[in-house]
Amino acid sequence: MKRASGDSVEDMARLVKQVSIESPTHKLKECIFSFENPMPDVPPAGARVKVRNAGVCYRLRSASSSSSIKSVEALHCGSPLHHSVRDTSLFPGYEVAGTVDAMGEEVGETDLQLGDRVIVYPYEGHPPGYAEFIAVPEVQYLIKIPDNMTLSTAAMLPSGALWAMTTVFNAHNHVEKVLSEKGETGTCKILLVGTGGLALWAMRIARFYWPDKRERININVACLRDEGISIAHEYLKVNVVQWNEDLYEEQLIERTKDACGGPVDIVIDFSATSRSIRRALKCLAPGGVMLMSSEHAEGLISRFGATAEKENHQLIPIEFGTLNQLRNLVHLVSTGEIEPPPHTIFSADQANEALAKIGRGIIPGRAILEFPEEEAEE
Fold first, then answer.
1. Record's InterPro entries (predicted)?
2. Engineering a disulfide at 366: which of 46, 131, 150, 343 sits with its beta carbon 3.0 to 4.6 angstroms away?
3. pTM metric for this prediction
4. How many CA atoms lie within 13 A of 97 on its CB side?
């Protein structure tokens, strides 16, 4: 491999595999599609990455759904993947780990070399990552990963783990304020909604940020599905309350308060909906804080802002983490200061199986897709 501004004739003629994981709808029953696309060009100031692992992941800045698939037949018209397949918010492939395959001629001084193992910061305009190769416009978006970290672990960091880290970091000041107001014997009650990968990361990151205050921080988890209870008990080791939608809303609110020992001071809801916000506000103590994704915040704050103000509640949107925060996260995980949650590896051809197991809640942690190494392809 050589640094090049363009591509060899062989590369230009090569077709590479790309997988799209869609949300099933009543019009589109299948949700996994495989394509062959031309090898992406090497950006002049960027690099091409050979993808090894990609997390079945989360994404804050999801693309518009205006480009959704209209029918299975539409998949065979030869349109570029990003024009014909919706970039869903849950499964677009924005957690990518692989190796540097080529770099453009305009790349300046950099510590990157061909063959280096890297992750890709999920910048605006990041291409779908469930592909054998992706083009990154600037090498600044590539972060080298240490030799002691596997690519499958690294693939969990760029989106979900970074988002969880940013959320916990933002919660830190609120936790300190609550503890200060309640005195030396007071506790800060936190309600974490959900038991997926984000919650698993958030718990581990919280233990890093507050190692000397664990006894004064009471973290409770609201499970949204039955399978989440065992995950919370086994991997989170925290108090659990089940949000069983068969119960009346008043019963769920009282059950949550009882499990938490009263109204909570902070709610962290990674997938906030109108229902979860309405419920959380009724579980919050006066002056309490709710943290949510900035992606959903504008409409939800507009809808519930007046209700929150009556009890002096704050609805706080959390922006996506920065490039430097991701570098710091890589360091903390590689040194063992933050323990990554468990993950299960599926080959790219097993995407259907991975999605089915995620849907049934039987994967403890994260699902990671894996593309074959070059030698295996040949």
1. ADH-like_N (IPR013154), ER (IPR020843), GroES-like_sf (IPR011032), NAD(P)-bd_dom_sf (IPR036291), Zn_alcohol_dh (IPR050129)
2. 343
3. 0.80
4. 24
C-alpha span between 3 and 234 (Å, rounded): 48
Phi and psi of 156, rounded to 5°?
A: -85, -10
Compute the C-alpha angle 307/167/187, nearest 5°.
Answer: 75
Which residue, 31, 25, 17, is CA-closest to 354?
Answer: 31
Residue whose C-alpha is closest to residue 79's, from 71, 56, 30: 71
DSSP 310-334: HTT-EEEEEPPPPHHHHHHHHHHHH
- Which residues pair with residue 20 across a beta bridge? 33
Q: If you ran DSSP here, which 8-state letter would residue 15 be given?
A: E
Identify whether the C-beta of residue 214 lies closer than 8 Å to the C-beta of residue 233: no
Instruction: Indicate the Cα dihedral angle 136, 141, 146, 147, nearest 10°.
Output: 10
Q: Which residues on neighbouring strands pair with residue 41, listed in sequence order?
A: none
158 is written with which tokens? 């760029």
In this structure, the chain runs to a length of: 378
Q: Are 142 and 103 in contact (CB under 8 A)?
A: no
Q: How many CA atoms lie within 13 A of 38 on its CB side?
A: 13
CA-wise closest residue to 253 among 283, 213, 296, 276: 283
Return the number of other C-beta atoms located less than 10 Å from residue 306's C-beta: 8
- What pLDDT tens digit does each residue of the chain (378 aa) get? 445 544 554 555 576 766 666 555 444 445 666 677 788 899 999 999 999 998 885 444 443 332 332 232 332 222 232 332 333 334 456 789 999 999 999 999 999 999 999 999 988 877 766 788 999 999 999 999 999 999 999 999 998 899 899 999 999 889 999 999 999 889 999 999 876 778 888 888 988 888 777 788 998 888 776 555 555 555 556 778 888 777 889 999 999 999 999 999 999 998 788 888 999 999 999 999 999 888 778 888 989 999 999 989 999 998 889 999 999 999 999 999 999 988 999 988 887 788 778 777 777 778 898 988 864 444
